[in-house]
Design a protein that fits this description.
globular, 2 domains, 321 residues, 8 strands
Length: 321
C-alpha cells in the first residue's frame, strides 16, 4: 500500500503510525494479543499530534494549508450541504473549472455556494488550473451572486486559491477588471454574505470572493496579500527566506483574528483538516449556520453598512507629526 503524503514536521507521527500498522498486521498474522502495546502507541501518537500542531511555525502553517489531502470545496459540498446543483459559465466566454458554484441547502435552507476548486492529481489540476481562476471564473461567481440576490438567498464563498491566474490570456480578458468588479459589487449586495478560508487565501484571487459580512478561517488556513515565496523573492531576492516572510506577513488564522481580519477561527480536528474531513465539515457547518442566523436577523441596510464599515476599519497606521 502506498504511503500517504506527509509533511516534514509530521515525521515522528508517521513513524509511530507505521509502528501501529505493523503491530496490527503482526497480530492478524500470528493471532496474538497486542492491545496493551497498541494502547501505548496510540497514546503516544495522540500526544505527539497535539504537541506538534499546537506549536506550528508560520511556514509550517503554510504547509498544512497546502496539504494535498486537505478537503476542497467539492468535498465540503458533499458533507456540509445537501441538494447541490452546479451552475456553469459566465455567459460571456466559457466555464472556468477553477471556480464551482450553485444552489444548495444548509440545514434545509437554500443558499448559493461558490468556491475555488483545486485538483487531486495532475490531470484534474490541469482541468482546475490548480485552483487559480481566470477572469471568466470571477464573472461566473458574480453572476451567481446576483442571481442569489434576485431570489433573496444568502451567499457562502469557500476560499482556497494560491491566487488569480497571472497568464497573458487572463490579463488580455481583463483579470484585474474582473476582480475589481467583484470587490465593488460584493460590497453592494443586500443579501447575507459569509466566506470561509479553507486552505490558501492568496491575494486578489481570494479577495474577489472575500468581501463578505463575516470572514471565517479554518484553524490552519492562511490569508495573505502574497505568498511567502513571492514576498521573499521581492524583499530578499530569494525564496529561501520564505520562513522569515511567512512570519512577517502575519498570515496565520490566529494573527488574522487578533488583527480583526477574521471574525472567527474554526477549530480543526487533531492533526488538521486532512486527518478528519467529516469532523472538519461538522465544525464548518455549525459555524456557517450560526453566523447566517445572526446575519438574517439584521435588516439589509444595517447589514450592508456594517460590511462597509468592517472593511473601512481594517489596517493600522501611524502618522509622524
Amino acid at each position: 500500500m502506498a504511503s500517504k503524503p506527509h509533511l516534514e514536521f509530521e515525521r515522528d507521527m508517521v513513524e509511530v503510525q507505521e509502528q501501529i500498522e505493523k503491530l496490527l498486521e503482526m497480530a492478524k498474522k500470528k493471532g496474538i494479543d497486542v492491545s496493551s502495546e497498541l494502547s501505548d502507541l496510540r497514546r503516544k501518537l495522540e500526544v505527539l499530534r497535539d504537541e506538534t500542531y499546537r506549536n506550528l511555525t508560520p511556514i509550517e502553517q503554510v504547509q498544512v494549508a497546502r496539504h494535498p489531502n486537505r478537503p476542497y470545496t467539492l468535498d465540503y459540498l458533499e458533507r456540509v450541504f445537501t441538494d447541490f446543483i452546479e451552475l456553469h459559465g459566465d455567459r460571456a466566454y466559457r466555464d472556468d473549472a477553477a471556480i464551482v458554484g450553485g444552489w444548495a441547502r444548509l440545514e434545509g435552507d437554500p443558499v448559493m455556494v461558490i468556491g475555488h476548486q483545486k485538483g487531486r492529481d495532475m490531470k484534474e489540476n490541469l482541468h482546475r488550473n490548480f485552483g487559480m481562476p481566470h477572469p471568466e471564473g470571477y464573472r461566473k461567481a458574480l453572476r451567481l451572486m446576483r442571481m442569489a440576490e434576485k431570489f433573496g438567498r444568502p451567499v457562502i464563498t469557500l476560499i482556497d486559491t494560491p491566487g488569480a491566474y497571472p497568464g497573458i490570456g487572463a490579463e488580455k480578458r481583463g483579470q484585474a477588471e474582473a476582480i475589481a468588479m467583484n470587490l465593488r459589487e460584493m460590497a453592494r449586495l443586500r443579501i447575507p454574505l459569509v466566506s470561509v478560508v479553507l486552505g490558501e487565501g492568496g491575494s486578489g484571487g481570494a479577495l474577489a470572493l472575500g468581501v463578505t459580512d463575516r470572514i471565517l478561517l479554518l484553524e490552519h488556513a492562511i490569508y495573505s496579500v502574497i505568498s511567502p515565496e513571492g514576498c521573499a523573492a521581492i524583499l530578499w531576492r530569494s525564496a529561501e527566506h520564505r520562513d522569515k516572510a511567512a512570519e512577517a506577513l502575519k498570515l496565520t488564522s490566529s494573527d488574522l483574528h487578533r488583527l480583526g481580519v477574521a471574525d472567527e477561527v474554526i477549530p480543526e480536528p487533531p492533526g488538521g483538516a486532512h486527518a478528519d474531513w467529516d469532523g472538519t465539515a461538522d465544525a464548518v457547518r455549525a459555524a456557517l449556520t450560526r453566523h447566517l442566523n445572526e446575519l438574517r436577523a439584521m435588516d439589509s441596510d444595517t447589514r450592508r453598512q456594517a460590511r462597509w464599515a468592517r472593511f473601512g476599519e481594517l489596517g493600522a497606521w501611524k502618522e509622524n507629526g
